[in-house]
Design a protein that fits this description.
This protein is of the alpha+beta class. The protein has one helix and nine strands. Helix content is 16%, strand content 50%. Pfam families: YtkA.
Length: 135
Amino acid sequence: MTNSSMKRAAAATLAAALSVATLSTAYADITDYEFRLVQTDIKQGNGAIVAVRLVDKRSGKAVPDAVIFATRIDMAPDGMETMAAPIEALPSTEPGVYRFKTNLMMAGGWRLSLGAKIQGETGTLENKLVLKAVP
């Protein structure tokens, strides 16, 4: 085998390896992420803190720096969807954990609805999480 044919064979092998690697690369999708409640039972009352962790379901790792642009908390699990409470974002205490302050005025089931954009991903992540306000 001549030097030039060895180079061509090596180049062809490299090209084949790169195309296989490109085809087998798994791309993330917005459905690969989800919010999870840090605690499902939260003390009832004004100033209640609800914390959620944004997780990459493929690796189980927390995802920091998401932009949460939609939040709502209401009593839909107890059949009172129109009973909503104000909710405000708080600073995070750890990467990938997002905290909110709200008024869980009644004990019972509450639904936290979140809408977020994740850096580097297309689409919008939307999750509805159910928690319980306890006396």
